[in-house]
Request: fold
Amino acid sequence: MSAIYKALRPSKEEKDSKVGKSTRANRQRVLLISSRGITYRHRHLISDLQALLPHARKEPKLDTKKTLYELNEIAELYNCNNIMYFECRKHEDLYMWLSKPPNGPTVKFHVMNLHTLDELNFTGNCLKGSRPILSFDKSFDMEPHWQLTKELFIHQFGVPPQARKSKPFIDHVMTFSIVDGKVWVRNYQINEPAKVQEDVGDVDELTLVEIGPRFVLTPIVILEGSFGGPKIYENKEYVSPNVVRAQAKFSPIYHDKRKEQEKPLETIDMRGYTTLANTGRAFRKTRKLRDGGGLEEFLFRGQVMQVYRDMMREVYLIKDSQVRNEVRRYVKDEYRSTSHVSDLETRRSLLIGGIRNWRSVANNLGLSRTGGGVAIRDGMDRDKNV
Reply:
């Protein structure tokens, strides 16, 4: 038995050759998590990043925003050595935290100008689970904090060769460019012509077609530890969006718009217009006076509606259904012919003629309430009866 074991056991030279050929495995796993209060656009961005990162594990939202060091325990629980945490403030400002637990470092970014895949609707496409080529600007090698940021981007967005859900294909490029102290992130498809696919054409004929999503990252601070520790870098040029909104409120343009919005309306004397009280309130709420609409025309339009509403009430007193339908159709036609006239005087004359015709119709039908109490109130002569 021992002879068989010795024969099957590899020799020392074979062991040394295997050790020499073995390479260090690239094991990167990203914890993708967000805070409470994110908007639908932020949620769609996180879903797009999850589709692009097959080595990421998405977790439910984090309830707290103060004790962020709890993310280290969650990452250890799910065997993740990278954390991508999205924090939303005031339901509009989105921040991205990139961390290497448990020892750090941590970089905090302000996410601006984000556009999801559904918003862009580009023609580019890539295989889900494929590995990207990470392209960095030369500016990342100029300063130490950009070098550190570049290394974090490689660990977060670089898909390992043997990730669990990855596919052995490389068909898209993620570019990171520095412009005005901000990182511009884009995602492109590698478009191969038919000649290149058949190994006939030149590789230089490859083109890039944007896929999305796209967003801009403004670095704020770099911490030595994972969601804690001393600051090793702080962006002095960064201005909080709260400060920007506060300064906008003190600008003269903002106050001019505020004064225009809060311009006092003309007062409406509703005495004698009890049936049109709700109509007057609606007119004030719509603020049509400020846009040049006439109050007299508005009130007269309400009076026309009130007159024909009284006519319809009397129509429903007719017992014969056939006659009732014919009279109701007649009243509707009269109302349409009156309401579609733009001239106020013409509309008033048509209304007076319509009321006279209605009185004759009501008398012929023998109705008890024959519209004799209908009064035309035009704001100047409220006691004028037809």
